[in-house]
Write a structure and sequence with these properties.
Elements (H helix, E strand, L loop, with lengths): L35 H4 L16 E2 L3 E2 L7 H5 L3 H4 L9 H4 L1 E7 L2 E6 L12 H8 L9 E6 L2 E6 L2 E7 L5 E9 L2 E9 L8
Parallel strand pairs: 4-5
Antiparallel strand pairs: 1-2, 3-4, 5-6, 6-7, 8-9
């Protein structure tokens, strides 16, 4: 089973990347779930990842919802827009917020209260299936948990160590001794001095 980030799921979770003004309509309502308000970093609010937003309160939701930053308004987790993810994948139940910033990448942000949630089944087995890059629409699967980043492959989970928000990630396969071997590493941005 693959995950399709190009069709319905590709209605993307950052509408600005497709020139849209608003996030797509949810297939499923968020309801009481607001785990995104905890696990995601919100730059404009100086809210770090893994901490509840200061504007959120349990039972009441977001105090600035009608005037929340566009960064929040545009966000839509994959569970809410995917017909293929059942109630067990709802973020407040799974402790995982799935989203994408590119149709070839799935990002899994894990609730710091249960940092190993991504390794529990059925989630781990499905992440492994989605990480298979041999299909027609290969997807890079990234897991961000407890301040660390993992790149998931069917045959390995590569721990890149502490997250480096300003670095890109290079991952794929290389040939070693005639075998395909998964690799992943951070790639630092090159800053050129003015001429």
């Amino acid at each position: 089973m693959s995950i399709d980030l190009t069709e319905r799921e590709g209605r993307r979770l950052d509408a600005s990347s497709r020139g849209q003004d608003a996030a797509p309509q949810s297939v499923k309502p968020c309801g009481d779930c607001s785990l995104c308000c905890k696990v995601l970093r919100i730059n404009v609010l100086d809210k770090p990842a893994g901490h509840w937003c200061s504007h959120f309160s349990k039972g009441a939701g977001c105090a600035i919802h009608s005037a929340s930053p566009s960064e929040c308004q545009r966000f839509q987790c994959l569970w809410s827009i995917s017909d293929s993810l059942g109630e067990d994948w709802r973020p407040d139940r799974s402790k995982l917020v799935l989203w994408s910033d590119d149709r070839r990448r799935l990002i899994v942000d894990v609730d710091p209260a249960l940092p190993g949630a991504w390794r529990l089944n059925p989630y781990y087995a499905r992440l492994k299936l989605w990480s298979d890059r041999t299909g027609a629409s290969p997807v890079e699967v990234l897991v961000r948990s407890a301040g660390r980043l993992w790149v998931i492959f069917p045959e390995a989970d590569i721990d890149l160590g502490p997250m480096q928000p300003d670095a890109s990630i290079d991952s794929g396969y290389r040939i070693e001794e005639g075998r395909k071997v998964p690799y992943a590493c951070y790639v630092q941005a090159v800053v050129r001095a003015p001429v």
